[in-house]
Write a structure and sequence with these properties.
The complex is a heterodimer. By secondary structure, chain A is α+β, with helices and mostly antiparallel strands. Chain A contains 13 helices and 26 strands. Chain A folds into three domains: 109 residues, Immunoglobulin-like; 187 residues, Beta Polymerase, domain 2 (2-Layer Sandwich), CATH 3.30.460; 213 residues, Rossmann fold, CATH 3.40.50. In chain A, the strands form six sheets. In chain A, strands 11, 12, 13, 14, 15, 16 and 17 form a seven-stranded mixed beta sheet that branches. Chain A has a seven-stranded mixed beta sheet with strand order 22-21-20-23-24-26-25, sandwiched between helices. Chain B starts with 6 loop residues before the first helix and ends with a helix. Classes of the chains: A alpha+beta, B mainly alpha.
């Protein structure tokens, strides 16, 4: 229907964005040389600027906007063309190419992130994704829940029997047979264990949702999101957006749907779930869809299931460019100090091991070493080295926000035959108070047979009530040395050494000028 | 574009009008009620958050209790090892 009269009038397009007037709030696509790059709602996603509405370029797109392109603004539902002209942005002459390093076409998704979308992937790329989807559905089935495509994947299957062109991932959901959030969480833990036992990497988003990584035939890793849900008092709650009156027979017994030629399970009445997810307008495509989760649903899902990922995304992002490179940095001042103080070191546990620089250093000297961290990918390169070199280094996942991981590792370390030494280099200044308490619990459990814990951390200075972060990327949370010492003593440790040392770390993530570093050594005697 | 007014602005106006009326009726009690409401909301969240803590402990105990009860050191070691490996 391209001959339709558009309800949107585009005034001009420049380096700032698209300047327009809107007859009504419509979703429009922005095309570069005929390919959809971005979609937005003409009123919801704009602001008044110079008497007209302005849709600013998403920040992720800005770095590409230098050159020329045939730019079109097209109303998504009717196809009416509101703007179609050759434009030049910046002072370059070449065609604008919104592509990644390998030349794959990118566009902006509904969360304003930039990625490859289904509409630019051919069959040979979609097949492995379908295989992975079936594989994870089968694994979840074997683990005891009846999962089905959910969110955008279900929407595509029901509306188009295919992936939605402007979508970029696969979402799966299941509805628990349990009726209490506590049991739903336990079931989710159990599913994680079963999937890990089957060899999948699992990254937990919340106590009821996680990502399953599938290694595909070409060696690439693809993450499929799995969202748990349950019925409570006639309402269906499904992570991470749904809380709505719902009948159980709209889910069970599961029926089927078709996705790109494959038959997959689906809720008994998929249209009911889609209406609960996207509203009654779910049949009308909306590439700029935003969830408007009611506050009460958001608060319930938060209260029951969320909160365990504090600072995870930040640290994962910080390490994302480095994790496949073997670290070349020198061991920390604390690692050297531990080595000096413990000439008969038989076993080392590095808590908050990060990229595992220190852990690898100890292990290469023949000290059996355990490195624990919640940023699992950070030590990817070291993990490969361990396999290749055969050094006595184990790297495990532990989060001070997940007590079960802290207690389980505490129990395991306590059973080591050799007496372990614990170290934590700039861990205690990277966590909140709960993190400190968790660390102390881990130390007490691990060293219940006796042993020492060494910690370096940025300290609050005398007379300083609290630390004011120096900008958004400053995650340092200095602690008062006496408070940490008190917490260790309350747990039965003696403080055998407490001093202030020079900040010698050269690690970018910990670089703080003029901030004293506290060094504490606590000891549990047998 | 004037045909479409943002919902946010309308709500803002309505909220302010409601508050004026409520303040005329309830006086200082309104601040007290607002602050009590905030406290109660926070307390409800605290209770909800217990689910995760309790589920974590229950999960761990459940996985380790049987081997412990059997007093089989090998089984205990295997259970602890499996728990940490599958986190």
């Amino acid at each position: 229907m391209p001959d339709q009269t558009p309800r949107t009038t585009v005034d001009r397009v420049d380096e700032v964005g698209v300047h327009l007037s809107a007859g009504e709030d419509l979703v429009v696509d922005v095309l570069f040389d005929g390919r959809r790059i971005w979609s937005f709602w003409t009123v919801r996603d704009t602001r008044l600027d110079g008497g007209v509405l302005l849709a600013e370029w998403p920040s992720m797109l800005k770095r590409f906007l230098k050159g020329t392109t045939r730019l079109s603004v097209v109303e998504h539902v009717t196809g009416a063309v509101a703007y179609d002209a050759e434009v030049r942005l910046g002072d370059r002459d070449e065609r604008i190419a919104v592509v990644d390093a390998t030349g794959r076409p990118l566009s902006i998704d509904k969360s304003n992130r930039i990625s490859t979308m289904f509409d630019t992937r051919d069959e040979e790329h979609v097949k492995p994704l379908l295989d992975s989807t079936e594989q994870v559905l089968a694994a979840l089935h074997d683990a005891g829940v009846e999962a089905f495509p959910a969110y955008g994947t279900l929407l595509g299957a029901i509306r188009e029997q295919n992936f939605i062109g402007h979508d970029n991932d696969v979402d799966l959901g299941y509805v628990s047979r349990h009726t209490h959030p506590l049991d739903v969480i336990r079931e989710s833990f159990r599913l994680q264990r079963a999937l890990r036992e089957q060899g999948y990497a699992v990254d937990r988003y919340s106590a009821a949702a996680f990502k399953v990584d599938v290694v595909e035939a070409d060696g690439g890793v693809r993450g499929l999101d799995v969202f748990g849900g349950y019925f409570l008092d006639g309402r269906l709650y499904l992570m991470g957006e749904i809380g709505t009156p719902f009948q159980e027979d709209w889910i069970f017994p599961l029926g089927t749907c078709t996705l790109a030629g494959r038959t997959l399970p689906a809720p008994a009445r998929p249209e009911k779930l889609l209406e609960a997810t996207y509203g009654p307008g779910w049949k009308v495509p909306d590439p700029a869809f935003h969830f408007e989760t009611p506050r009460t649903t958001y608060r319930r899902l938060n209260g029951w299931f969320r909160g365990g990922r504090a600072m995870r995304n930040e640290w994962d992002r910080r390490f994302s460019m480095l994790r496949e490179k073997l670290p070349t940095g020198k061991p920390s001042a604390l690692a050297h100090y531990v080595a000096e103080q413990e000439p008969d070191l038989a076993r080392l546990v590095d808590v908050g091991a990060g990229r595992a620089v220190d852990a690898l250093w100890f292990a290469r000297q023949g000290v059996p070493t355990l490195g624990l961290d919640f940023a699992w990918g950070a030590a990817n390169a070291v993990r490969r080295t361990v396999d290749a070199e055969g050094v006595p280094l184990e790297l495990g996942w532990m989060s001070l926000n997940e007590p079960r991981s802290v207690m389980a590792w505490g129990a395991r370390v306590a059973r080591f035959e050799e007496r372990p030494v614990l170290m934590a280099n700039h861990l205690l200044d990277a966590v909140d108070q709960l993190g400190v308490e968790s660390f102390v619990r881990f130390a007490r459990m691990s060293l219940s047979g006796g042993g020492r814990v060494y910690a370096d951390f940025y300290a609050l200075q005398a007379g300083e009530d609290r630390y004011v972060p120096q900008g958004r990327t400053d995650w340092i949370r200095p602690k008062r040395a006496e408070d940490v010492a008190d917490a260790l003593e309350r747990s039965g440790a003696d403080i055998v050494h407490s001093t202030q040392v020079e900040a010698t770390t050269t690690r970018r993530e910990f670089a703080v000028a003029d901030r004293p570093v506290a060094r504490l050594v606590g000891e549990w005697r047998k | 574009m004037a045909e479409v007014t943002s919902g946010g602005e309308r709500r803002g106006f309505k909220d302010r009008a409601v508050e004026r009326v409520a303040r005329a009726v309830a006086g200082d009690r309104l601040d007290e009620l607002q602050s009590r409401l905030e406290e109660l909301s926070a307390e409800v969240q605290e209770c909800r958050q217990l689910n995760i803590r309790l589920a974590e402990v229950t999960d761990l105990v459940e996985q380790l209790l049987l081997p412990m009860a059997a007093q089989d050191q090998e089984k205990i070691a295997a259970a602890v090892e499996k728990y940490t490996r599958t986190l």
